[in-house]
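INPUT
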Amino acid sequence: DSGVTQTPKHLITATGQRVTLRCSPRSGDLSVYWYQQSLDQGLQFLIQYYNGEERAKGNILERFSAQQFPDLHSELNLSSLELGDSALYFCASSEFSGLAEAKNIQYFGAGTRLSVL
Amino acid sequence: AQSVAQPEDQVNVAEGNPLTVKCTYSVSGNPYLFWYVQYPNRGLQFLLKYITGDNLVKGSYGFEAEFNKSQTSFHLKKPSALVSDSALYFCAVRDAMGFKTIFGAGTRLFVKA
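OUTPUT
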């Protein structure tokens, strides 16, 4: 068990809908990362938060947004869903930021499987 | 820009034989390199990392990786494969000035009994 909790495990919804994925990082970890894993795109970095602030952005669509709350849990919001958004969404957490961040291990949750029908 | 290449989609090896999963990278400055493993229906798990120092890094479950700066490679190795090593393996790279981890496409390792 990595200590990172993601809910829900599975989500089935329709095109055009909006969903929220939730992540609780490991105790003490200040950084949260979101990734999308699909068969054709591999593991894609979406966005990182550190202690409530956005730190880095990857290939995140404008229809997607995220935030990290004062208790350090994070939510990834996906709106106007399309069939192509069906994927596994992973959250990861790590302890540090800054230069130490680059050396740090990321701990991954079990993921949320999103199916858009 | 950073990039990682895992040239093999799948590696097949017999149990008890040595295994190698290949990874090459491109990054400005000193690379920080990682290997992660993903078992079915699970998140990624950290195996090992190279930050600095000895080019041969030892990690979890008997895995090791060799950093080769001239060839910009970081191949994952294990002297004797187990059926339970069958999984999806990801190489990843970060640079010291960036906050992004770039993952390779993954290599599926299949160990046959």
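end of record. Helices of chain A lie at 99-102.
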